[in-house]
Structure formats: C-alpha cells, structure tokens
Amino acid sequence: MRILVLNGPNLNRLGTREPGIYGALSEQDILERLKAEAPEVEWRHVQSQHEGVLIEALHEAADTGTHVIFNPAGYTHTSVSLRDAVALTVEAGSLVVEVHLSNPAARESFRHTSLISAVASGTIAGFGAGSYSAALHVIRSAQ
C-alpha cells in the first residue's frame, strides 16, 4: 500500500509555530510516528507553500492509486483548485483523508468552512498529531 502525506503551507514550521494550537511535534516527528505505526506502507511525503505543487502531488496520487493523508492548512478555506484535485483523486479510486491538527470549527469563523471536506473521503480534526494516526487507521481499515 502506498500513502502520501501531503501538507500545505506553514506545516514545515510545526513544533515551533503556535505550539499551543498545533502541538510541540515537528512535521518530521509526525512522519516518523506514522512510519513506525505502519512500516509496511510505502510512504511518500510532500509539503509545500505552493498550491500548484500540492495539486501535482494529488494528480500523481490519482495516477498511481496512492492514498492520501492531506492537511491543506490555510488552503482548506480558499482553494477551489485543490478541491477539484481532491475530487479527481477520490474519483480515481484513492482515499483522501483531510486532516487538521486543531479543530477548525472551534476556531475563528473564517476557518469554519472547508472547501475540501465535501469531496474528501473523510475528515479528521482536532486530535493533534493523532489526527494523522487516525487517518492511517481509516485507510488501513478500508483495504
């Protein structure tokens, strides 16, 4: 099984950026935990501040049957193009689990609407790094 961990803007700053909201673990810490939980998985990771890079990674996942754990970060609320790329990836047969470290519904009102949720396979939010582990569990259970 192949899984892409796809992280949007500013997630490369985890562990130092607002740890009261996003936790003390770095992006690398989260990735290492996932690899330890599922060493049999063929892991790939992409993090970018750039929307086009994220879209290209989703296209590749669609083309290769790779499942995706996707934290679109701030693009969650703004990117129709990422929404469309998630939709085509799911349509191609890959699971795309939208994850968030914090609970957007409990934060500022502009974070309450996700353009991604309606087309993702599912959404997990509010459990810190555990959101990624829960997404892994969902993907494994669906196989």
TrEMBL record:
Assembly and interaction partners: Homododecamer.
UniProt-annotated site: Transition state stabilizer, residues: 17
Organism from which the protein derives: Pseudoclavibacter albus
Highest taxon in the source lineage: Bacteria
Taxonomic classification: Bacteria, Bacillati, Actinomycetota, Actinomycetes, Micrococcales
Protein name: 3-dehydroquinate dehydratase
UniProt: substrate binding residues: 71, 77, 84, 101-102, 111
This protein's UniProt keywords: Amino-acid biosynthesis, Aromatic amino acid biosynthesis, Lyase
Pathway given in the UniProt record: Metabolic intermediate biosynthesis; chorismate biosynthesis; chorismate from D-erythrose 4-phosphate and phosphoenolpyruvate: step 3/7
EC nos: 4.2.1.10
Main function: Catalyzes a trans-dehydration via an enolate intermediate.
Annotated NCBIfam families: PRK05395.1-2 (NF003805), PRK05395.1-4 (NF003807)
Family the UniProt entry places it in: Belongs to the type-II 3-dehydroquinase family.
Active site positions, chain numbering: 22 (proton acceptor), 100 (proton donor)
Reaction(s) catalysed by this chain's protein: 3-dehydroquinate = 3-dehydroshikimate + H2O
InterPro entries: DHquinase_II, DHquinase_II_CS, DHquinase_II_sf
